[in-house]
Design a protein that fits this description.
The chain has 217 residues and is an all-alpha fold. The protein is built from 11 helices and no strands. The protein folds into 2 domains: 82 residues, no CATH class; 105 residues, Serine Threonine Protein Phosphatase 5, Tetratricopeptide repeat (Alpha Horseshoe), CATH 1.25.40. It is globular.
Length: 217
Amino acid sequence: MKKLFTIIALFLLTVSVTIAQDSPYQKAMKKEIAKVIETDSIPELQQSANAFARIAEMNAKEWQPLYYQALAYTFQGLNRSLTLDKKDEALAKAEELIKKADAISPNNSEIVALQGFIIMGKVNADPSSRGQSMSGQVMATYGKALGIDNKNPRALALMAQMEYGMAQFFGSGSEKACKLAKQSQEIFAGQNKETLKAAMLPTWGKSMAESLLKKCE
């Protein structure tokens, strides 16, 4: 009887370990996600974008590969070393990819927030000619993301960045921007980052909120 219980216990342990192991898809995703949120190197971002493209091709029903591929191109589009044409080229690729992700997972606050970030990237690329015409679209998109999930810390941090930029441009107060950044920071602080990483959900954006809060002091 004791031997039987030992066999059962070993079997259950084997099953639990097997369940806990990542699939090849998850392993590939987690490896590239770690890269894309930790680098600002254009060659490395492009390598990750290419890797996510391959993953997306083999996992056509998943939105995350398209999301992170779009994020890699968005980060490229924000790089100050690129010419305006190159920034626009990267952001156009990001926009195309995030639309595909949205088709797979509609009304997803993370996808909508990234859509706003892409538009904000376009504004940042040429603020003098695009700021007036596109700023409203940026804020409306962040508002939509928060309408889906008002606890999305990235949407709050990104909206705070946009609010702060507009306040600086118009010479108005930055109280609203600072309040949004504070809300974002508090939500980030309460999240279990490891749980989010295990589910391949976004964790980036905390440094944006913290950086803005330093300006608010």
